[in-house]
Design a protein that fits this description.
This protein is mainly alpha-helical. Helix content is 71%, strand content 0%. The two termini are 16 Å apart.
Length: 277
């Protein structure tokens, strides 16, 4: 692990991305203290004021709401959705992958055919279908993108377990009487964490994009909630005379996802023993 950290420190792009994500996370968590205004408070006298207006450094939307405050609060919601969805999908995917890969046989075939059914649908289309069935809302959109992400982690874990279960240290653990639960928890799972960390880092960006896409379509967070996808959806009506309403939340999504991808690439290079040179 220390060797991986030293390799990661040499990747200046990944470190810069990590620092940027840390800054965005801190600003989002401190939104109640850092946001200059109430993100849903309206003031029609300031409707569509441009960037640089006194008191409104990033302008205001069609209801006179401060864009800067809404961006700060929107980051809090978008990051919460992204990380929460990844955690839920990872936990369920790990459990499914461990069981399928370790026990094999008919159980593995049954589980993986179900995973294949989920993978047969485009991810965003499946998420839209789930939200449409459950009803629009922030919680349902988070649940939908979590379900969509389960096959991703299940396949990663299963492929690792298929090779690990035949290793000598696993056979030795069986010979000394270790239970299946203990073998999976202490010997198999720790050896699957490296690819999972990289996958999770990259997947947060997809989750944020998917959540913003569902909100843009009116299936995720609902107005007047300050969320980047909602801001994009509302700003598209004024793209000609007030383009900053869409450009600013779109740029925020772009920068966060770009940073997550740079960090994920750095972690992949640091944790892959084949790339040590």
């Amino acid at each position: 692990m220390m060797v991986a950290l030293r390799r990661l420190r040499r990747d200046h792009l990944a470190i810069a991305a990590a620092l940027f994500l840390l800054l965005v996370t801190i600003v989002s968590l401190l939104a109640p203290m850092l946001a200059p205004r109430d993100p849903i408070a309206t003031d029609l006298s300031q409707r569509l004021v441009p960037i640089g207006t006194p008191g409104y450094p990033l302008g205001a939307d069609d209801l006179g709401r401060d864009i800067l405050s809404r961006l700060i609060w929107g980051g809090r919601i978008s990051l919460l959705i992204g990380f929460s969805a990844v955690i839920v999908a990872m936990v369920l995917g790990i459990l499914i992958g461990l069981v399928a890969g370790y026990f094999g046989g008919w159980l593995d075939a049954l589980i993986m055919r179900f995973i294949d059914i989920l993978l047969a649908f485009p991810a965003i289309l499946l998420a839209i279908t789930i939200v449409a069935s459950l009803g629009p809302g922030l919680r349902n959109s988070m649940l939908a993108i979590s379900i969509v992400g389960i096959p991703y982690y299940a396949r990663i874990v299963r492929s690792s377990v298929l090779s690990l279960r035949e290793q000598e240290f696993v056979h030795a653990a069986r010979l000394i009487g270790a239970t299946h639960r203990r073998i999976l928890a202490q010997h198999v799972l720790p050896n699957t964490l490296a690819p999972l960390i990289v996958a999770a880092t990259l997947d947060v960006g997809f989750m944020i994009t998917a959540a913003a896409g569902l909100s843009f379509l009116g299936l995720g967070a609902q107005p007047p909630t300050a969320e980047w996808g909602v801001m994009l959806s509302q700003g598209r009506q004024f793209i000609r005379n007030a383009p900053h309403l869409s450009i600013l939340p779109g740029t925020a999504i772009f920068l966060v996802i770009l940073a997550l991808n740079f960090l994920g690439d750095g972690l992949r290079d640091a944790l892959d023993p084949r790339l040590r040179e």
